[in-house]
Design a protein that fits this description.
Elements lengths: L7 E5 L7 E7 L2 E8 L2 E6 L13 E3 L2 E3 L6 E3 L15 E2 L1 E4 L2 E4 L5
Antiparallel strand pairs: 1-10, 2-3, 3-4, 4-8, 5-6, 6-7, 9-10
């Protein structure tokens, strides 16, 4: 579902407790979605190392650890924790009427 300004539905807010993440498919893209104490964040769900599922990784604060080989990323802006000049694509999020929405234009 999409409205006129490009926001896409990514599911209900109850899908994640604070401090956890999940994997969703939005417009045929795999998206890692995280609910932190600072709010909702979304990033490309495929790890740039060897394709691990970032939405199934462990979330510590605002850092997710890939479940396959342990690469770590700040979910707020995609910063690699082992190479701060590199960033994994992230997406804007918002919550409307109990639903999480994202925009797939990468930042
Ligand atoms: S696939 Fe994510 S760290 Fe290797």
């Amino acid at each position: 579902m999409s409205d006129d300004d490009g926001w896409l539905d990514a599911g209900e807010v109850e899908q994640c407790a604070v401090g956890s993440g999940t994997e969703v498919v939005v417009a045929d893209r795999i998206v890692a979605l995280f609910r932190t104490a600072d709010g909702w964040f979304a990033m490309n769900g495929t790890c740039p190392h060897h394709g691990g599922p970032l939405g199934k990784g462990r979330l510590d604060g605002c850092v997710v650890t890939c479940p396959w080989h342990g690469w770590r990323f700040d979910v707020r802006d995609g910063t690699y924790q082992h190479a701060s000049q590199a960033k994994h694509p992230t997406f804007a999020t918002r919550v409307v009427s109990g639903r999480v929405q994202i925009r797939l234009d990468e930042s």
